Amino acid sequence: MRSELTRFPLVKALLKNRWPQLLVFIVMLAGFLFAILSGFIGTPVGSSNFGIVFVWIAWWAILILVAVPFFGRGWCAVCPIPLPGEWIQRGAILEPPSRKPRWLNLRWPNKLRNIWLQNLTFTLVALFSSVILTTPTVTAIVLAGMLFLAIGMSIVFERRTFCRYICPVGGFIGLYAQAAPLELRVKDKRVCATCKDKPCYNGSQVGYGCPWDVFPGGLTRNTYCGLCMECLRTCLYDNIVVNARPFAADLAKPSTRLDETFKAFIMLGAAMIYAGVLLGPWGALKLAAYSVGTTAWLGYAAAFLALIFGILPAFFTLAVKVGQRLSRASTPQHLFSKFATALVPLGLMFWVAFSLSFVLTNAAYILTALSDPFGWGWNLFGMAGIAWQPYLNALLVPLQTLVLVGGLLWTVRTAQKVGTEVRVSPIPVIVFCTLATLVMLGLLL
Amino acid sequence: MSRKQWFLIIFAGLAGAVIAFAPLPVRVTPPAQRTLRVEANQFAYSPAVLAVNPGDTVTIELVSTDVVHGLYVDGYGVSVTADPGQTTRLTFTADRSGSFRFRCNVTCGALHTFMIGKIQVGSNILLWRALGLTILASLVAIILFPRPAKAQAA
Lengths: 445, 154
What we know:
A: mainly alpha, 2 domains, 21 helices, 3% strand, B: alpha+beta, 4-stranded mixed beta sheet
């Protein structure tokens, strides 16, 4: 059940033309650079600094509540971080130049062609998040670091190596993009098979080869397609389409990759830890998470790592094993990873529920930071004096309940479909997911 | 879908509506005056969790031990601010049951936005309803789709 969006001439023209995307890119890049600048020169008070407020409240709200659930990697299509590096790598901003610049253009090492490094970078950011989220200078250093790393990697390696293998955000966007009701695919795979030059992958005079190192003809999941639309521009046979589709269509083909499986555990565990530490009433936990380098922080970090890499996977393994026993099944391959597909909708909904609370409570800071981005006492739009207050407070608990219960139902269906495929009872996995949801409800409500 | 499955869906819908909306028996305690002393320092309240009964007239004595702190009660929309070393009072009638966050509403440092406490007015009925709905949803899904077709064959 798919509906081709690119059959509408206006949609197709907007996606093929480089100018609309460039305009969005320029706005995003300007905002990104301004966030870095305000982090360095603005007030050290996080809730009054544009960098903190726009990155961790406004951008995060858009990303996790809208962009990822509905557009998958839609954010990656307009993300400003790889832009300067990509422009340098290509020697052009729009169409390919007549003479390509001579950079090293190396292939990323085969052993690192997975998302383990992204798991590591996300875990590192998560471990230091209490400081990053609240200290403008640290946020600015992290953002600038990502920008310069992306530039450096564009000069040394081919394509968007930073986005594909390093970006801490890109990893989880890819995981949850599988649940989005939007996809880029080919119309007819036979056309791709007979296409000689494969300009979608290798590039041509009218466009660049896939920056994400993906051959569109082989796309079956959203995970690594950055929706940059280059293939739509380069395809000689008009064989690339953007479809609206049912939610979670990709989850019908469970992943067998352990790096993706652990990404699901990292995201699930991090959402639970954040709900407890950041939104809970336990001051000692917050201080431990903030006091980087102290014994308390080491304890926090150890607990964090133990939960996401030890406790959750261990209980999940137990659930899978019990399911196997119940079904008297042999040991199908990749059972652990396949069942972990069910954690994709669960984790996404955990993050939505967590973010609703965080974002609605702190959204008032967006208006004041717009009027006084550096915290210098400006009042550009007359909103600097708006008093802080939480928004939609009465709706928060019902919304979170709806999201978490809905997420669990979605997870249960996913687990049941995986169970059908591998012929193993999904009930223990469903019990695991139900218990995780109960814990999350207890932490948030 | 079979008649049995339709019956189960309708039953689950009704059960869900009951769990979500049915009035629950409430233990009636005569309203009382309660004064609770809350110390605030970067970035925690002590005690962090307060418990009162529905209908109580609650006075929170806020004492800040380091910088200026505030206390805003979600759901009630009332707040108070305390300068270091001073005690200020906030009085309100706890006429809504449930669990409500209270949080600092005066920028007080790095973790200001996460300086949070909880006040529990009676029992946290919304949480119990949510837990009930979660268990119901899980059970219904398991019963409705007990074993996938291929698994049965196996």
